[in-house]
Design goal:
By secondary structure, the chain is of the alpha/beta class. It contains 20 helices and 30 strands.
Length: 706
Amino acid sequence: MDLYEHQARELFKEHGIVVPRAEVTDSPERAREIARALGGRAVVKAQVKTGGRGKAGGVRLAADPAEAEQAARRILGMDIKGHTVDTVMLAEPCAIEREFYVSYVLDRASGGFLAVASAEGGTEIEEVAARRPEAVARIPVDPVAGVHTATAVRIADAAGLPPQTVDTLVRLWKVLVREDALLVEVNPLVRTVEGRIVALDGKVTLDDNARFRQSRWGDERPAPDDSLEARAGAKGLNYVKLDGEVGVIGNGAGLVMSTLDVVAGCGARPANFLDIGGGASARVMADGLSVVLSDPDVKSVLVNVFGGITACDAVADGIVRALDEGPADQAARRTPRRQQRRPRPGPPRRTRAPPGRTGHHHGRRRPPCRPTRHRGTHRRIRRQDDMAIYLTKESKVLVQGMTGAEGMKHTRRMLAAGTDVVGGVNPRKAGRTVDFDDRAVPVFGSVREGVERMGADVTVVFVPPAFAKAAVAEACDAGIGLAVVITEGIPVHDSVAFTAHARTRGTRVIGPNCPGLITPGQSNAGIIPPDITKPGRIGLVSKSGTLTYQLMYELRDIGFSTCVGIGGDPVVGTSHIDCLAAFQDDPDTELIVLIGEIGGDAEERAAAYIREHVTKPVVGYIAGFTAPEGRTMGHAGAIVSGSSGTARAKQEALEAAGVRVGSTPTETARHVLAVLDGTAHDGAGHDGTARDCAAHDGTARDGARA
């Protein structure tokens, strides 16, 4: 959530940063009165959440109250980069001697924060960096130590800032941490002719995931309106309004972004992004369809749901409910009776029995886990016959939050997939045993107890966002080697903290906000449906959960060594590069599939790594070509800012590294088949293009749909 400039200045003021006197209004007449109270002269500034106000005429210096009223009248109602100016801020002018730039910004590449500073403030920092990159200092900040005086001195020295700015740099860091901000920026930070350091203009971006502990943020939100996005938000739906005529509903941000791209690729225009999420109920589906059908621009609706985590019968029930409950204008747009679809001519589609459940003891009850004493952390030697990355049949898995609804549901699925779940963790229910069909699983009071008594070396985290940081830290301190964090909605500052802590303890974190990972036929740690694929020779790494499932299903006849869903949040514990390196070293992996999406530069960095270090063929897919700039598309990290993080830039980087990039998940599967069969352009799949491939005897089929 971006704040308006006047809101950012109020935060700065609360933390002791000097700002000029100012007041906000939506009335030209009131602007005259404010200017008079400020001493006559005033700077009149448009309040919009975008840059470039000065170039657009949205910032004017008024010499007297009459000019202030005239300036406000000109600015109010102005359009600046698609933002209508509803209010203006009048601030007292300063006598400026020098202008600087300072900010703290989330650095997705390192999983921490950067201090960015320059002695050349007053203009957009991107322009300075492009013209004179040496004029912009970028200093990594230790998220544990933070910014104290010594660190602030180092930042100021690196950027050529005067010593008087050190106190402001320390206070600005406090704004970032205490307000759960992802960005705090002052441009310009000025030294006046009197020698004061003053923040003239500020920008702050807050982390919506931290709302549960930042109750006063309610005052920062715009007043409720009757827009479709406001109505969807009131129902807890992840909805973004777009400009087209085809409504799109799906489960999972990656799958919905992919569906938008497919709609656009067919010559239509998507009308919205709507992710009902994994495990959505009929009520959620009905609410979502009701919002989409309320859009007068919508002429048709495409529902694309991948079964497994979401029950497709519940989705169908929700569709019927929405149509039955809809208002008259929706009912009039319904087709009263649907004709049955005629079968297409040609050979019948092949069918196949679902793969059996590996490791499931049919017809007899598996004995309960019997705790045994281990000294310290359990360590195992990985045998050559069960090679995979990160997770094998010998992994001993704890589930933190097992006794909750989601924990129970997915523990049952993990057990059915053959996972050796040795215990759950819940201090309030320690000592109990939970029965899961053919297995009784003990509940421990701490992760350390599960490690010492059962030799656990993997944990799957299902705890609520407010407790996730403590849960992961506990697992790291107990000596767990792999922590799979399923929880979504974790504040970014918490993710930065526990991933940094994990690195110091030697724990690999996968996630947060991820589906986990599966080594088919051996073990499943997370929520990935285990019965949609089989063991094979493809390694898969993906930001998106549902796109992970779709590619697994599309390539189920080939199978996978390991599939890793790393998560789509801005900060994750395991990167594409980590998985690429592991798959490169895994003798059972012959080909790697990389799935990315808009936001950040992880895919570009992965492309550079592939070029230098990966000799195995890589096939890629990027979701989000139709995503509008500045809008978060489901995942907290899925956002395009200017030219940064676009799907096109990621595709071009991967293709330049020799990766075949599919335009749809199905085409991506065809590329994989062509490479494995040796029918790709150069026999290895590294021809630097995303060419269409002929369908491969029906084995790259579309995934199951509602």
